[in-house]
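Postdoc handover notes: sequence design on the structure in folder B. Input tokens:
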């Protein structure tokens, strides 16, 4: 079973969206459920502990306590984290 979630603004709904859905699923029966998407910021700030953590992170960044790295360094770190292998 193939499942996909589309996050789209109503202003972007057009015939191309329907055509792409038809292309993805072919001639299968579909169930289409439409719901209003929750704002990610509101969701993340719902938890008091998460809100506190995020606010501290924002404050740290503003105070120069962030970690800077290039896109290549990010890709390398991401690969290391995913594979559990650190490259020299």
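Designed sequence:
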């Amino acid at each position: 079973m193939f499942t996909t979630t589309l996050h789209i603004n109503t202003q972007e709904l057009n015939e191309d969206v329907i055509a792409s859905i038809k292309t993805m699923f072919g001639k299968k029966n579909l169930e289409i459920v439409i719901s209003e998407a929750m704002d990610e910021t509101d969701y993340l700030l719902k938890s008091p502990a998460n809100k506190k953590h995020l606010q501290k992170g924002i404050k740290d960044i503003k105070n120069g306590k962030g970690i800077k790295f290039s896109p290549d360094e990010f890709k390398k770190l991401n690969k290391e984290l995913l594979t559990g292998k650190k490259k020299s």
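Context for whoever picks this up: Residues 48-62 form the longest helix (15 residues). Don't rerun without checking with the PI first.
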